[in-house]
Specification:
This protein has one domain: 2-Layer Sandwich (Protein Binding, DinI Protein, Chain A), CATH 3.30.910. It contains six helices and two strands, in the order H-E-H-H-H-H-E-H. The chain has a two-stranded parallel ribbon with strand order 1-2. The N and C termini lie far apart (71 Å).
Length: 172
């Protein structure tokens, strides 16, 4: 009998906590923002991509030239290989291997440097977006702002994505 009374008391207490939690959640003002949409719509993203493209165009051209050189040498071997001596084929293979190795080293360095710069610039944009979200949340008296990908459903009036885009775009 004691166990039954204890379980009834525990169930009642747990239900009370759940109802109280629901009531407190109902008093909260919650906003939802689509971060990817914001990043895609703001002009700063396109500006940074253009500047990065300009910054690394010379390195990209070097890689493209190396790629063309490798293809040319491979085609030369395929085309003229039957007319070449064993020494000439060996020299051509060594040249192709050297070009390919150079291409791999420069390609890896290119990817690392462009990736690092892209992350650096994106972090600056993310800081602007977060600042805009904080400002909108403060002005709108929101208790909580969630990323849309973490939300199963939200009312359309809880979305602040367009407001964030407008505010960050003004900073351009």
């Amino acid at each position: 009998m004691n166990k039954l009374i204890k379980s009834i008391v525990m169930t009642t207490a747990a239900s009370g906590f759940l109802l109280a939690g629901s009531a407190m959640a109902a008093d909260q003002k919650i906003a939802v923002v689509n971060f990817q949409e914001v990043m895609g719509k703001i002009p700063q993203t396109a500006t940074i991509m253009k500047s990065l493209e300009e910054e690394f165009k010379d390195d990209k051209a070097v890689l493209a030239q190396l790629e063309q050189d490798i293809k040319y040498q491979q085609e030369k071997k395929k085309r003229d290989g039957s007319l070449m001596s064993a020494k000439e084929i060996e020299d051509l293979d060594a040249k192709i291997a050297t070009l390919f190795q150079d291409y791999q080293v420069k390609g890896k360095a290119f990817q690392q440097s462009t990736g690092a710069r892209k992350n650096e610039e994106q972090n600056k944009i993310v800081a602007l977006v977060r600042q805009a979200i904080d400002n909108i949340a403060a002005k709108g008296d929101y208790d909580l702002v969630l990323e849309q990908s973490a939300v199963v459903y939200s009312k359309p009036d809880s979305a602040i994505t367009d407001e964030v885009v407008k505010q960050v775009s003004k900073l351009n």
